[in-house]
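Late entry, written up from scratch paper. The run itself happened at the end of the previous shift, but nothing got recorded in the book at the time, so transcribing now.
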Amino acid sequence: IPAATLALWYGISAFAFFLNAFRTLVAHSYRNKGDRPMSESEQLLDSANVTSRLAGLWAPVGLRYHATHHLFMLMPYHQLGKAHKTLMRELPPDSLYHETLRSSLIGALGRLWREAGAAKQA
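Output as recorded:
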């Protein structure tokens, strides 16, 4: 196999692993210190739904609806988008569900970074 082909495979694999690490970070807010079980509301608020249209590219199997998954854990991933749209339409804007929304991958990572910094100072 030519070195250029191996280098290309390595680059694509490294990018995929790098992106997957960020996808995993975005799914939760990591607020639980592990000292007690979380309530259902806390579990919901510790999860995120990413609303950008580009989320389908980096989270095609439903990770963009991770908070919805925490509400309906047995729901198949292909139904989460429909459930999310229904909840957004039917719930008031000040609901806990709306607090799970993140505008993008970068926005979610930024929020995670800011909250981690605030928790460290507390």
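The CA atoms of residues 73 and 113 lie 27 Å apart.
(Scratch paper discarded after transcription.)
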